[in-house]
Write a structure and sequence with these properties.
The protein has about 280 residues and is an alpha/beta fold. It is about 45% helix and about 25% strand. The chain is built from 11 helices and 8 strands. Strands 1, 2, 3, 4, 5, 6, 7 and 8 form an 8-stranded mixed β-sheet that branches. Helix 5 (about 80-95) links the parallel strand 2 and strand 3 (about 100-105). Helix 6 (about 130-140) packs across helix 8 and helix 9 (about 220-230) crosses helix 10. The structure holds S-adenosylmethionine.
Amino acid sequence: MNSEEQNKVLQAWQLSAPYWDKYRALITQMFAPLTTGLIEEAEIGFGHNVLDIGGGSGEPSLTISGIVGPTGSVMYTDPAAGMVESTQAEAGRRGLNNVQFRQCSADDLPFPDGTFDVAVSRLSAMFFADPVIGVREALRVVRDEGCVSFAVWGPKAANPFFSTINDVFDRFVESEDPDSDAPDAFRFAPRGKLAGILENAGARNVIERHLNFQVEAAMSFDQFWRLRTEMSESLRTKMAGLMPAQLPTVKQAAADAAQRYFVSGKMSFPAEALIVSGRKPAV
Ligand SMILES: C[S@@+](CC[C@H](N)C(=O)[O-])C[C@H]1O[C@@H](n2cnc3c(N)ncnc32)[C@H](O)[C@@H]1O
């Protein structure tokens, strides 16, 4: 990715930050199984010093803060200033004093070698400018034998939380087919792709775990529609490309496609993610 493309990615996340702040509680709840999966894979426990890369609106940092306790610490990082500011404010509201904040990108982590016990990253690796460099940096800043662990989405078809609305928009608004290695939620869906990157970056004992779970919350289709069309930069752009008269038709088509995932005021989508982990070799 050249620097112009990288700036575009960062600008999109910066514009998304207010919506991620707005929906923080739902994001925490809906994707909690990914946080649990990362904590288990990286064996995070009391007293550990943990790095979170691309922490967005605060997960998994804010949950891990409670697990590592007062003798441990969490270093939250994200390159989008809006994400850092809103998460720092949230940590302040919660009175968390074992979380620190740095605005930085995965490919240039401002920490000395071996600073952390563990590095984790939830749903962010797919946006790294150069994933091999990002993983190499994560390995550099963990201690020898320290774990690096990344949660990424599985295939689009197995994740109707995203595809249901996206596919309907694609019927109405022309969009280019993204390059299969462009920064995108499904960049690391192919089995073995991120695991290969960890191996190339020098990780040992690389493991790819498949996680099937339900994305659940007490939510109507209308609330889901608002959440998705606000949080996603690509949907915001596609909305802007619709003629106003088309909007009710698109929304109704999405409601029809999503109907089976909304029962008695509850949303429940099946989801598939990968948790890819490895260890820094001992010297
Ligand atoms: C889908 S959000 C995930 C946020 C959070 N970890 C979560 O799971 O809710 C992706 C995050 O990756 C961050 N990001 C984008 N490019 C990045 C990079 N080069 N290095 C680190 N993080 C990046 C974005 O700013 C955004 O906060």
